[in-house]
Amino acid sequence: MTTGEVLSQSEIxxxxxxxxxxxxxxxxxxxxxxxxxxxxxxxxxxxRFSKDQIRSLTRIHENFARLLTTFxxxxxxxxxxxxxxxxxxxxxxxxxxxxxxMTILNIFEVPPLNGHILIEVNPNIAxxxxxxxxxxxxxxxxxxxxxxxxxxxxxxxxxxxxxxNLRDAWESVAEIDPIFTDFEVNPQFLQMISPNDTVVVIxxxxxxxxxxxxxxxxxxxxVLEPIIPKLSxxxxxxxxxxxSLPEETKAIDRRIRFAKLPIIAELGSATITIQEFLQLExxxxxxxxxSIHQPLLIKVGDIPKFIGQPGKRNKxxxxxxxxxxxxxxNYNDE
Length: 334
Hints:
The protein is α+β, with helices and mostly antiparallel strands and 334 residues long. The chain has helices spanning 9-21, 26-35, 51-76, 92-98, 123-133, 149-163, 166-169, 221-224, 233-242, 246-257, 274-278, 328-333; strands at 80-91, 104-109, 116-121, 179-184, 198-208, 211-220, 263-266, 296-300, 303-313, 316-324. It is built from 12 helices and 10 strands. The strands form 2 sheets. The chain has a 6-stranded antiparallel beta sheet with strand order 1-5-6-3-2-4. A 4-stranded antiparallel beta sheet has the order 7-8-9-10, with no helix packed on it. The chain is elongated.
């Protein structure tokens, strides 16, 4: 028992029974506790990610799970439910031992990040997906060692399209471009990284029709190393703050203020027939439907905005704004 460890009721009962029966004395218990104060550290299971960073990766892949649910629902046209079950950091060797000896393995490159991401799909759901794509009811089976070339091609195409959703899920921390590079069924043939290197494994609970299984996403530390600072809460809070900087608002305001708009002062309008239009010649006069005593309508980008009067300024034609345009009544009153 270590300091701060909480015992269950059955463990407490067993401990009290041992003390009562004389099998263990209080002094022996005290010595045993003192001897275990030093916590054993396993260097093979190095913890390179903080709990905060693991939580950030969990949030990213919760979004990825939603995107996958939408994609597979549309592609397979059956009930699909995918959600994050767990996220943990373990040695690569331990991950390989934890998955089936024969399973569906998809390897992706994620440039500009280095290294590869491994996505393992349990054969139960992989075959259910294949059966649905081929027009079946989604029956699950497990014969990975006997995959035909056609089955391999159909599966790899399906997973290539599905896992391209990683791009959208990761866009908040990195702009990646997932590239499907390999399809394998035997984990022992995969030597992506050293067995003792730390990887983050995100497990997704997956339900396809009546079949269920796991999708495991294995991300080596070397892939995440360049973006580790972006996985902290501090970075997320900083990003939120940058979105509302006053300098950006001022820059937009400045651009709007110096934008050029067409200004039109209408002297009036007239209606003529096509015959009269065809007979127009130089020197003809067209009578407008507006009195010289009425103000002119000023349009900004074809929208009536002001009323004004014509004149001259520095020997150039000009228009003086008298008021804002408030409709026909305001215009006719003038």
